[in-house]
Amino acid sequence: MLEVHSLSKSYGNNPALIDINLSVEKGIIFGLLGPNGAGKTTLIRIINQIIEADSGEVKINNKILNPEHIKNIGYLPEERGLYKKMKVGEQLLYFAQLKGLRASEAKQRVKYWTEKLDISAWKDKRIEDLSKGMAQKIQFIATVIHEPELLILDEPFSGFDPVNAELIKDEIIDLKNKGTSVILSTHRMESVNLLCDHIAMINKAKKVLDGTVEEIRQLSRKNLFELKLRLGSESFPPHWIKQPSAGQDTKFHIMLNGGTTNQLLQEALTYGEVLSFEEIIPSIGEIFIQLAKDTDHE
Ligand SMILES: Nc1ncnc2c1ncn2[C@@H]1O[C@H](COP(=O)(O)OP(=O)(O)OP(=O)(O)O)[C@@H](O)[C@H]1O
Fold it and tell me: Gene3D superfamilies per the record (predicted)?
């Protein structure tokens, strides 16, 4: 649905994006990750045609990015932009019409979304009289009201309490299931694990990771296992690394160098009662931190 080819952008002598290639399929949630200052916002701004790339191209549905695409994109920026003096209902109608909806259609959609997110009662309130989380809901509706094909969400859960964060999460999944492609930029790794089908990570202007969450986790496997034992003796092999653990049970991290997991398990049985045995597969958060460190040292 969205393709980014060899995209580069610098601010003066400072490169913000270097030769970035990405492909976002229809109906998926694509996590765009990276440490602060990596280049994510720059990429998002180029897709939204707020700034221009120095070189490379962006295509939406096989067409070079052009102003017509704006109506097909819903962008929730990190710095929210609502008109403080305007009333909620008026503001949503305004945004919907700005994105090309006819007045009658816009009205229907405002009714639909304000009811869906349970905020019909706020219609006549001014934005300046709302709490941060309440204003966030309005901004979310303003982003999705024109039913864009591509949604770009920058930290969509910030400012929400857990109940409302869950509500918004469910709405995002619902939109994806209806065929919307979603680019989700966030530093919250639990959201990435829960929501994203595919992720790409940018660090220091370069893409350092690209794949499905499962592919990336599998590639990061290190043949490392965690074994919990009720030890029968005080001795154990020197390559078993003892981990802090409570009570009588002893936890080890063991790197499997040659041999099979069954052989390791058999060996473990000779040292005591095996309570649990599982492979340690790094989480996306751990992979993120490792990659950020690795590229920092390059
Ligand atoms: N308008 C600008 N003028 C000059 N430099 C800029 C401008 N906007 C961004 N930069 C620089 O470009 C680089 C990438 O910034 P960008 O905002 O794209 O990062 P980011 O990944 O969105 O970071 P964050 O997670 O902190 O929002 C940084 O070095 C930043 O200082």
Answer: P-loop containing nucleotide triphosphate hydrolases
